[in-house]
């Protein structure tokens, strides 16, 4: 009588199911992370001082403010005055060989007339109060614009067309912005800066400053 041979091959083979599960988890995590970065939010650091003192920026990213940009809100609502927005370079900026995203504050909205008078911003002939975020001594003039064949955009009053926005840096004495090169199309706006997560001693939300033009006193 022959002895029965037990087939124990399956019990002897290592269980690799956990490896497959780990692989699926890693892939899913990457997909979710890319999806969040593409559609919901992304982290950025501030490379220049154009938004001082609101946001600190330097070329060394470990000494610069790091922020979260909300990319979802503007899929359902339009940018508002006072929002700090990140946007891709406009056609004019691309012609000047700028490739990286910019960060500025929304000042002028579609349909509004914007002009500079005596170093101040006027919207539809009303003074725009900006004392909450501009340092003392800051004036809004076109002297900061680079010399070139074209006149600075705000060299004269301008009416903003539909789906376009006028943006300025908070550091008006050292910001290359709409005063010089013009408007930001709605489609170029990536999102709104909402939270600072670095440095740790300045962690917190980036509050929107409501801005309402007021009658000239």
What is the secondary structure topology, with strand pairs?
Elements: H1 9-12, H2 17-40, E1 41-45, E2 66-70, E3 84-87, H3 91-95, E4 102-108, E5 113-117, E6 120-123, E7 126-127, E8 158-159, E9 164-168, H4 178-181, E10 184-185, E11 189-198, E12 204-205
Antiparallel strand pairs: 1-2, 2-11, 3-4, 3-11, 4-9, 5-6, 5-8, 6-7, 9-10, 11-12
Compose a concise summary of this entry.
The protein is an alpha+beta fold and 217 residues long. It has helices at residues 9-12, 17-40, 91-95, 178-181, and strands at 41-45, 66-70, 84-87, 102-108, 113-117, 120-123, 126-127, 158-159, 164-168, 184-185, 189-198, 204-205.
Structural description of this entry:
The chain has one domain (42-205): Umud Fragment, subunit A (Ribbon). The model is unreliable at 1-10 and 27-39 (pLDDT under 50). With 217 residues, it is of the alpha+beta class. The relative contact order is 0.19. Strands 1, 2, 3, 4, 9, 10, 11 and 12 form an 8-stranded antiparallel β-sheet that branches. Strands 7-6-5-8 form a 4-stranded antiparallel β-sheet, with no helix packed on it. The protein starts with 8 loop residues before the first helix and ends in a 12-residue tail after the last strand. The radius of gyration is 25 Å and the shape is globular. The protein has helices at 9-12, 17-40, 91-95, 178-181; strands spanning 41-45, 66-70, 84-87, 102-108, 113-117, 120-123, 126-127, 158-159, 164-168, 184-185, 189-198, 204-205.
List keywords for this structure.
single chain; 217 residues; alpha+beta; Umud Fragment, subunit A; eight-stranded antiparallel β-sheet; globular; disordered N terminus
């Amino acid at each position: 009588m022959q002895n029965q041979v037990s087939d124990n091959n399956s019990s002897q083979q290592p269980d690799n199911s956990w490896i497959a599960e780990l692989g699926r988890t890693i892939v899913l995590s990457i997909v979710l992370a890319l999806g969040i970065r593409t559609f919901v939010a992304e982290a950025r650091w501030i490379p220049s001082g154009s938004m001082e003192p609101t946001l600190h920026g330097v070329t060394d990213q470990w000494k610069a403010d790091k922020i979260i940009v909300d990319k979802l809100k503007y899929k359902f609502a339009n940018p508002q005055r006072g929002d700090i927005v990140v946007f891709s370079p406009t056609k004019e900026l691309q012609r000047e060989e700028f490739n990286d995203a910019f960060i500025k504050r929304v000042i002028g909205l579609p349909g509004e007339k914007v002009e500079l008078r005596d170093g101040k911003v006027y919207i539809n002939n009303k003074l725009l109060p900006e004392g909450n975020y501009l340092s003392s001594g800051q004036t809004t003039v076109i002297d900061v614009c680079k010399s070139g064949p074209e006149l600075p955009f705000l060299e004269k009053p301008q009416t903003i067309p539909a789906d376009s926005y006028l943006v300025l840096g908070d550091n008006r004495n050292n910001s290359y912005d709409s005063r010089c090169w013009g408007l930001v199309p709605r489609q170029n706006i990536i999102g709104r800066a909402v939270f600072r997560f670095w440095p740790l001693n300045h962690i917190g939300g980036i509050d929107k400053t409501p801005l309402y033009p007021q009658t000239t006193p």
